[in-house]
Amino acid sequence: MGSFQDYIFENEERDGVRFSWNVWPSNRLEATRMVVPLGCTYTPLKERLDLPELCYEPVLCSRGSCKAVLNPLCQVDYRAKLWVCNFCLQRNPFPPHYQGITEQHQPAELIPNFSTIEYTVNRGAPTPLIYLFVVDTCVEEDDLQALKETLQMSLSLIPQNALVGLISFGKMVLVHELGAEGISKAFVFKGSKELNGKQIQDFLNLTPGAHASNTSNKFLQPLSKCDMSISDLIEELQPDPWPVATGKRPLRSVGVALSIAVGLLESVYVNCGARIMLFLGGPGTQGPGMIVGEDLKEAIRSHHDIDKNDAPYLKKASRFYEGLAKRAAKNGHTIDIFSAALHQTGLHEMRHLTMQTGGHMVLADAFATTLFKQSYQMLFSKNDKGEHKMGFNVNIEIKTTRELKVAGALGPCFSLERKTPNVSDTEIGIGGTNAWQLCSADPTTTLAMFFEVSSQQGQPPAGGRGAIQFISQYQHISGTKRIRVTTLARHWADPIANIQQVAAGFDQEVSAALMARIAVNRNETDNDGPDVLRWLDRMLIRLCQKFGDFQKEDSNSFKFPDNFTLYPQFMFHLRRSMFLQVFNNSPGSNGRC
């Protein structure tokens, strides 16, 4: 067992992939009887110091329906300078610059130890990153001062070629101009009026389709050119001047501020790495996306109110923020939310903003707390090369051998709607496709991928192993385009004849993580917590029946293989966690999960 665990950990360190089953059932029927679905966790930007980087385009299979990348599992004829795709068995000639390869002088992508490899390709000019700060000024003066100090500090951590911008909001929304000489200028928007993208373009006089390198935009400028200007603007921020009557909440225009931020970026910076960073001190109380009314006598919704359908703003606000999330995700822009308040700020309704765009959600008591400052600073952490640990517009595509089909994915991604022959009709999570996009990712961002065995009983898979290839294209922090390719294979086995071999390949930690993601997704989509708990219990009982050794009517006789023993404990704690339970948690706290 120890050697198998070592094999699992070595593969995770090298490739960023861990499978629930490391020996795959050989037919569809037996795969469904394994209880835990065949799947894996995949970390597309897994940090590796020894990762080989190749400064040329990858070699692709010539078959139009395949386009798999040359990898160590391919068969190679060094004399004829041909390679056979291990996914579709197509014979492909090597490009001219590969003519010198031999068995002794192999290119890096054919070396067995390099199952993961990264290409740096030249496809257009590098695009700079964009940081757009959206600041709530309806907070106490001391808290706002602490936030301003944190923002000033972060300017020293942002690359000098990055574009930066500033939007502040209270009752009104201010879009600040950068580089204005002698006086601070801002465009002021009414916080109670909803604006569409075209109106925002017209009001701000934006030119649709302009390239991200266009420095004529007065709202987003390279930090190297506007360092002093944006520092002064941040320092000049004051608490919202509009008076707040006794028994009232401050008028906070969260929805309009975010709508303007999304509209500004989608007008001229489409498919460029960008972060909209929202600093929120309370719930939206006016305009689109409002969470609660202005009167303090009106309590903000609770789980009980949601269950009783007594939350008047919930559905409309959720639809509004989900619409903003889809617009931002479509254009490759990330939304981060830093909420600092002792009361709820509406994270339940706003959760789609971070879930669909891959952003961070941080919940703290105040901007002056160490929790907020350290969490915010970690966003700008760097690797040993001095580069920020983040990538943008990560497109992930999966290739499989014919015995496997892609069932779906769960994580901070959205579907690219590519229906190919290796896509399963059975969907788990975001299915019906073999490609997804993440607006941003860091070395810890991990997706859950699910697969279906398509071989029928009595038709054993050809060859002893099945293979999967992950192709991840992303914008590096330097602005260059990179393609990371990971190709893996696992052995097939018949669970009826070789149940011990299949059981030995069970990874209980990843299986618990995959089942947790499925349970949370079911709870989110079906909105039936008790039914999800019963489903988890049934799955655990079936797994115990399948792989446990016991005598009927004797509870003391039950035994589990060593690599299964922790799984029931994981399920015990999962069903009692705030991922599935709402007791003693606010909707905002559960939304953060």
Provide an overview of this structure.
The radius of gyration is 26 Å and the shape is globular. Helix 3 runs antiparallel to helix 5. It is 29% helix and 23% strand. It starts with a helix and ends with a helix. Strands 2, 4, 8, 17, 19, 20, 22 and 23 form an eight-stranded mixed β-sheet that branches. Strands 9, 10, 11, 12, 13, 14, 15 and 16 form an eight-stranded mixed β-sheet that branches. Strands 1-3-21-18 form a four-stranded antiparallel β-sheet. With 593 residues, the protein is α+β, with helices and mostly antiparallel strands.
**Oligomeric description of these chains:** single chain
The pLDDT mean sits at: 90
Number of strands: 25
Span between N and C termini?
34 Å
Give the biggest beta sheet.
8 strands, mixed
Number of helices: 15
> What does the radius of gyration come to?
26 Å
Poorly predicted tracts of residues: none
Tags for this entry?
593 residues, 8-stranded mixed sheet, 15 helices
Summarize the structure.
With 593 residues, the chain is α+β, with helices and mostly antiparallel strands. The protein has 15 helices and 25 strands. Helix 3 (141-155) runs antiparallel to helix 5 and helix 6 packs parallel to helix 8.
Q: Strands, helices and their partners?
A:
Layout: H1 2-15, E1 17-19, E2 23-25, H2 28-32, E3 39-42, E4 53-54, E5 75-77, E6 82-84, E7 91-93, E8 116-121, E9 130-136, H3 141-155, E10 163-169, E11 172-176, E12 186-190, H4 197-204, E13 221-222, H5 223-236, H6 254-268, E14 274-280, H7 303-307, H8 314-330, E15 333-340, H9 347-357, E16 361-364, H10 370-378, E17 391-400, E18 404-410, E19 414-415, E20 435-441, E21 447-453, E22 465-475, E23 481-493, H11 499-504, H12 508-526, H13 529-547, E24 549-551, E25 554-559, H14 567-574, H15 587-591
Parallel strand pairs: 2-23, 4-8, 9-10, 9-14, 14-15, 15-16
Antiparallel strand pairs: 1-3, 3-21, 5-6, 6-7, 8-23, 10-11, 10-13, 11-12, 17-20, 17-22, 18-21, 19-20, 22-23, 24-25
Helix pairs in contact: 3-5, 4-6, 6-8, 8-9, 12-13, 12-14
